[in-house]
Amino acid sequence: MRNKLTKNFIWALVALLGAGAVGGIALNRGESINALWFITAALCVYAIAYRFYGAWLATKVLLVDETRATPAERLDNGRDFIPTNKWIVFGHHFAAIAGPGPLVGPTLAAQFGYLPGTLWILFGAVLGGCVQDMVTLFFSVRRNGRSLGQMARDEIGPVGGAAALVGTFAIMIILIAVLGLVVVNAMKHSPWATSTVAATIPIAMIVGLYMRHIRVGQVLEASALGVSLLLLAVMSGGWIDHHPILRVLFDHEGLTLAWWVIAYGFAAAIMPVWLLLAPRDYLSTFMKLGTIILLTVAILTLHPQIKMPALTQFIDGTGPIFGGTLFPFVFITIACGAISGFHALISSGTTPKLLTNERDIRMIGYGGMLLESFVAIMALIAATVLDPGVFFAINSPAGVVGKEAADAVAMISSWGFPVTVKQMNILASNMGEASLFARTGGAPSLAVGMASIFGSLFGKSLLAMWYHFAIMFEAIFILTTLDAGTRVGRFMLQDMLGNVWPKMALTSWWPSVLISSALVVAGWGYFLYIGVIDPNGGVNILWPLFGIANQMLAAIALSVGTGILVKSGKLKFAWVTGLPLLWLIVITSTAAWEKITSSDIRVGFFAAANDMAAKLAAGTLPPEKAAVATQLIFNQHLDAWLTLFFVVVLWVVVLDMLRVVVQSYFKKAVLPSSEVAYQKSCIE
Amino acid sequence: MKILKNLWARVRQLSGDDAYERYLQHYAEHHQSCPKDEAELPLSKEAFFKEWQDKKWTGVKRCC
User: How far apart are the two ends of chain A, measured CA to CA in Å?
Assistant: First the structure.
């Protein structure tokens, strides 16, 4: 009894502290605010949500049964179905879900100020993202680890299944293109960054060869070798940067780099996995975990001041990084970190096949997403500790603020975010770069933020080293996503083409491998190419498109979840997935509506296309813009149709789910539940 | 000391460093007593590693 009182008292304190911190962040109108407020708010919100909402979901809604044998136990084959320690599963799950998304999205959304992003990351995660991941994991565990697409087909109908498949393929293409663009923007005219990123390729191959032929299966040994080589590459990048001949070799325009990234993507998709993809993934996982831990430690020890205001004037939609008002675009820009449909593919992929006991579903599904949300908060902190003027100077594309440094700083300062050319030059030379202007995409500003945080902890003399370390760290796992995504896209395409011509489905038939790889690479390569030649930076078009696609996939996952809940007689709990679903439908549909119909040329695709066509006809475009105008106009049209397609897919799935819900409510015939029958667990 | 040893074991398991050892253990537990499998010897380390890596990279394994 006494014990219980103490526990309640502690939880009440956590709740108070969390409420105080969230309130403090929301109401602060001072010059700056300490990062510790964010960390405190986040940790308290996560603790309360995990302890109460997560536990309630497990025991009252899903009815997790720890006596029930999981697929890992029943189907144990020592290969893909293996009962595994929960911490190991957690590690695999987290390494799989946390990519570059939670780093890029919050950085871009910081143009609205720190507040909207922070609130959405915290509450979107605990009420939406974590629920989606946990519910999908649970239903997949109860269905022998079936994928989201299969569950959609089995439980809702063939339409839902097809939509999930098409949605996944589309999101993959857009994701790879936008990530490629982020890397290209970080590398353009930066011999240091380019040489370091280029060096990761042979290093990964050395590691691959080592694991395959020299010391077979010695993963840790090979990884240690690879990580040391990577650090060496970061250091020698500085030397190359100062070398008169070598630096020319690595100093390129964005377009040249884009072609290299495209060629690399194709090579990576057809090369054996052991040579490039698998070893690169080891390196990127170690780098990712190491850097996230380092960043946490650095932010906790330094507790830097956040200099970005709570809200900026750009909530009215005039922001330089991307156009569009606070609602709905902050919810589209930050997908990963708050709610990400992509996670549903992992939660219904590898993870359910490793889970030893159902009781760990809360920790892995709900907890894993909490940790990703925390990474997003850290990225937001790293972006907002910069002077807002510097943040905007790095992230605003030349097409918006002007090509000349003097024009850019004048425009940014006129918004009320003072910055000078001198300040930017000093910063660039500290970071070992020629210029930091117009490096849109989030990676460079995050790297500057991280470098200044690490720099104040470990000494300012190493700023340039830290900056390029951060760039390398982001690039290496962006390239891993690019490799892995192209490969998955290739498999999906081979599978789809196989329906038309069975031979195409053979993953070992070279003509099929080459054709399907080329098609996938051409798909994302096209968007990357357009993004690079677009004077407005491309990110402003591609990132919202990616956000809409990712939220669409999340809506599909939540539709499947809601459908299954209702079918299994839990209508009164259907709001658990139904409310986040409703919110996603609202934001995705609004965002898509605005992207298609808005008359603001920075938001509406058709408006932008018409405006450019009119200017082209009138001959008022500057020559460099006129040269690419036809391609840009075509692309704006294509993007508009693509957006429309995403929304139609979303509504088709939602309506199909509602049909199942209504039929089930009126006791009409629906597809039978595909849940596997109870079997008692024998594992202690 | 014991904590460090445990941690190391976890790191090895997480990275797949001990995947082959675990495979052999699984084989010993599940297949040896089974008469129909007697002809099937466990895979060599090279063959196992190849298959393990290929399997690991089929399907969606990484996210945004």
Answer: 30
